[in-house]
Structure formats: C-alpha cells, structure tokens
Design a protein that fits this description.
mainly beta; 5-stranded antiparallel beta sheet
C-alpha cells in the first residue's frame, strides 16, 4: 500500500495519531506562498482520516495561516 504524502493537494509535513482512534491523525501541511493569504504563515493543521484512502481531503481544519512554530505547537496538543 502506498503511503499518503499529500492532502488537499498539499504536502503532509508531519502527522500525529489522535488518541485511540486508529487511522485518525492531526496533520500539518504547507500551502504554497501563492495559495495562501499570509505567505509568512503557510501552514495548516488539520484532522485527516487515513482509513479513507479514496478521499484526498481532510475531515476538518484545526487552524490555517500558521507559522511553522505555531503549527508544530498546535499539532502536538
């Protein structure tokens, strides 16, 4: 099986499992500068269901327009 490396067309930088929910992860993605309103804050933290490999998107975004440091902090909460 191929590992999922993108979501919503953005590269997945890191993923963290969510508690006791197999297949559910908090992910951090980086949007290209031309596709985000704040180029200095291109990171998004979202929740993705890796059980549904037929769906490229995420279940929901936790937060958009984050710096790298803020995204890492939120990812690990």
């Amino acid at each position: 099986m191929n590992e999922v490396t993108e979501s919503n067309g953005y590269p997945i930088i890191h993923k963290v499992p969510i508690g006791n929910d197999p297949g559910w992860f908090r992910i951090m993605v980086q949007r290209p500068k031309e596709r985000c309103p704040f180029p200095e804050a291109p990171y998004v933290v979202a929740v993705k269901d890796f059980n549904r490999l037929d769906y490229d998107g995420w279940a929901y975004a936790v937060s958009y327009d984050l710096s790298f440091e803020a995204a890492v902090e939120l990812l690990n909460k």
